[in-house]
Design goal:
The complex is a heterodimer of chains A (about 575) and B (about 150). Chain A is an alpha+beta fold and about 575 residues long. In chain A, about 60% of the residues lie in helices and about 10% in strands. Chain A has 3 domains: about 240 residues, Phosphatase 2c, domain 1, CATH 3.60.40; about 140 residues, Globin-like, CATH 1.10.490; about 120 residues. The longest helix of chain A is centred in the middle third of the chain and has 42 residues. Chain B is mainly alpha-helical. Chain B has a single domain, classed as Globin-like, CATH 1.10.490. Chain B is built from 7 helices and no strands. Classes of the chains: A alpha+beta (about 575), B mainly alpha (about 150).
């Protein structure tokens, strides 16, 4: 019996970027599945990925009946590259755009033709192991292939995503194509680097190897990438071969989800006995409703996390509960009491499981403790935010105290000693910076360049009330993204940096406030713009480092070869001279 | 059991330290600025205190140790959420190394469980320290506001 194929795809802008430059295509009838990750310029990335997708779909649909599959996929990708390049050359705003692609064409239920260019990836899930089946076309990956970097060094390399190939960078693209033989129970995962760049391999393996449907799995993968920071657009397609039931049978007993769910009554009873119904976190609900809100929701969250081997559901449960409680100015003790009760009830479940299977009980306790650690991390995160807020209030109160300027109390103990950490700006300076940023955003709005907002926000955070928290390197890396190191890729960013600096400083200069505060705000913003430009320059230099290193080594080799050549030429001259002398002697 | 766990922990310590040194920047950017030697020295002391706790779990000793680690991480320039994430990551790292290096089976599971218990207790201590810090900051603010 031929196995069934189920497929599902999902794409999401992530948590940082306002625009989704990824795009996907899923068509089970046609057997074609594509993930593309666009890059470059204002709207360029999105345009590139969509043009490439349309071209690939068009060519594959027209050639499906009469062209050999591998050849068809190569032709589709190369034509897409030519079309993207042509469009970029024609339209200045789209100049330098490009896209990665990973595409699968199912030629039968057992054979997949995989084509890819760039760093979007294909993985094969088989026997509970997730194996990558494509090699990234990045400079770092090529250095690994050449033995110049170890895989571990490559994994941590700051510019692991600088591409050596893409669609659109050049009129023709070199496409890697391979045929994969599939078996019942296999799953193929196609994804953009917004997934594998923000999620560990083991977490991806657990989710793709889990029991959830293809659709839920793609949703979980997107959530996983967001939980890891969500710093890029994220796309995932799951193609599964065979029936769901077979996977479910193998995944359920190991996860502990079933054992946990079967004991939810025991869990609720312990919670009730320990007084969870009276917790102030339930906000005056009747005890039954309180149990439902606090205990049953936790029970369900743990069940879903055990089933899918993630911590997402417990995180969401704790995050919503803790944030709401602290927003109501609730104290720490009731939160800690609640989690103590949840822990005690969880351990009661573990003890009950252990009476039947001690080892399984140990494994379940490990999983439950990890869920509770997630809860502690949420509480700690909220307390950390409150500490920072309290600190800011303290600093603000200090600054508005009524001590006159230049009194003995304000003189530094050590004259001219600078503080090692920047101090937050005074409130009127912050007002000026805030208004300046808003005015600059309005001024730049007609350009509709999402980078403008990103730059202005980063500069504002660094210059003003969040002084010291602004990480310009991160912003610079985010602006750089995964583009190729070329003039046409960099010029739009440099132009955006210039435009933001000019508009921002002019807007601050026009604020109607005390001249001293305006001057301070102007200086802070100017310094922050300078820091961002500096950080961007360093990121750019870093991006070129692997190539520069290669070039330096090549120069050294060339210089050695020149020396050898010079020595050989000298030897030749000597030999010729000896030969001439010998000839003359003979004559 | 406790002594055998301590022996297992001792056998994994070098591998854990090597992995920590290699991946320090991914744990927190602040660690990237530190030298390999400094990371090894400081984390070796953390691992030694964890090993002691596995031999004889004492809440008072753990509280003392976690207070020291928190101060040390603050000194490295970590933010409060990063401190909590770092201690939890350290526990996860030990578990990961144990799973890679030790044979699968009940003994390894028991060891992992005890490390995860320690990890949970450590996270809880860090959270309690944050709460104390918040309370103290609020008291200071209240005094400051009354004073002004």
């Amino acid at each position: 019996m031929a196995p069934d194929i189920n497929a599902s795809g999902r794409t999401d802008p992530g948590l940082i970027r306002s625009e989704n430059q990824d795009c996907i295509f899923v068509d089970q009838d046609m057997g074609l599945y594509v993930v593309l990750d666009g890059m470059g310029g204002h709207q360029g990335g999105a345009t590139a990925s969509r043009i490439a997708r349309d071209v690939i779909v068009d060519i594959v649909s027209r050639g499906l009946q009469h062209t050999e599959a591998a050849k068809l996929m190569t032709e589709a990708c190369q034509t897409a590259s030519a079309r993207v390049h042509q469009e970029g050359a024609r339209n200045r705003e789209l100049h330098g755009m490009g896209t990665t692609v990973v595409a699968v064409l199912m030629t039968s239920a057992r054979t997949a033709i995989v084509a890819h260019v760039g760093d979007s990836r294909a993985y094969l899930m088989r026997d509970q192991r997730l194996r990558r089946i494509t090699n990234d076309h990045s400079i770092v990956a090529e250095l690994v292939a050449a033995g110049r970097l170890t895989p571990d060094q490559a994994e941590d390399h700051p510019h692991a995503s600088v591409l050596s190939r893409n669609l659109g960078g050049l009129p023709s693209a070199e496409v890697d194509v391979q045929a994969i033989e599939l078996a019942t129970g296999d799953r193929l995962l196609l994804c953009s680097d917004g997934l594998n760049g923000f999620a560990s391999h083991s977490a991806m393996e657990q989710i793709v190897g889990g029991s959830a449907s293809a659709s839920s799995t793609t949703l979980d993968l997107v959530e996983l990438a967001k939980r890891g920071g969500g710093g890029d657009n994220v796309s995932a397609i799951i193609i599964e071969i065979g029936e769901q039931k077979q996977r479910k049978r193998s995944a359920m007993p190991d996860s502990g989800a079933r054992a946990w769910w079967q004991r939810r009554r025991l869990f609720a009873d312990v919670c009730q006995r320990m007084g969870l119904g009276d917790s102030p976190l339930a906000g005056g609900l009747a005890p039954g409703e309180a149990i439902d809100l606090l205990c049953n929701s936790f029970c369900e969250a743990v069940f879903h996390d055990l089933e899918k081997t993630t911590g997402v559901h417990v995180w969401t449960y704790a995050d919503s509960l803790v944030k709401t409680w602290f927003a109501r100015e609730g104290s720490f003790a009731p939160i800690q009491e609640l989690f103590d009760i949840l822990r005690a009830a969880s351990l009661a479940v573990v003890r009950d499981v252990s009476t039947q299977d001690e080892n399984f009980g140990v494994c379940l306790e490990i999983a439950l403790l990890r869920a509770l650690i997630v809860g502690e991390m949420v509480i700690g995160g909220e307390l950390g935010a409150s500490i920072r807020q309290a600190n800011e209030q303290f600093v603000a109160a200090e600054r508005t105290s009524e001590l006159p300027d230049n009194t003995f109390a304000n003189i530094a103990t050590v004259p001219f000693a600078a503080l090692s950490a920047p101090m937050p700006a005074a409130p009127e300076v912050n007002r000026c910076l805030r208004q300046g940023m808003q005015d600059a955003e309005e001024r730049l709005a007609p350009a509709r360049n999402p980078r403008h907002a990103e730059i202005l926000r980063a500069v504002h955070n660094s210059a003003g009330e969040f002084s010291g928290d602004g990480d310009m390197t991160m912003t610079a890396k985010s602006l750089y993204g995964n583009r190729l190191l070329s003039e046409q890729e960099l010029v739009p960013i440099l132009e955006a940096l210039d435009a933001c600096r000019a508009a921002h400083l002019m807007a601050i200069d026009w604020q109607d406030i005390a001249p001293t505060a305006r001057a301070t705000a102007y200086r802070s913003a100017a310094l922050a713009h300078q820091s961002l430009s500096h950080a961007f320059a360093l990121v750019t230099v870093d991006a070129g480092k692997p190539t520069t290193d290669m070039l330096r080594e090549m120069n050294q080799t060339t210089s050695q070869m020149r020396e050898t050549l010079a020595r050989n030429e000298q030897l030749l001259t000597q030999l010729e001279s000896t030969h001439d002398t010998a000839e003359e002697t003979l004559l | 059991m406790a002594s055998s766990h301590a022996e297992i922990f001792g056998s994994l310590r070098t591998r854990v330290l090597d992995t920590l040194v290699d991946s320090r920047q991914s744990i927190d950017d602040s660690f990237g600025a530190l030298s390999e030697e400094e990371i090894r020295r400081n984390f070796l002391s953390v691992l030694e205190q964890m090993q002691k706790y596995l031999i004889s779990p004492s809440p008072a000793q753990l509280h003392q140790s976690v207070s020291k680690w928190t101060a040390m991480f603050l000194g490295f320039g970590l933010s409060t959420p990063s401190i909590l994430r770092t201690v939890v990551t350290l526990g996860d790292l030990i578990v990961q190394v144990a799973k890679n290096e030790l044979p699968a089976g009940p003994a390894t599971n028991l060891f992992v469980r005890d490390v995860v218990r320690l990890n949970f207790n450590t996270a809880r201590e860090v959270v309690a320290i944050f709460n104390d810090e918040l309370e103290s900051q609020r008291r200071q603010n209240a005094r400051g506001l009354r004073g002004s």
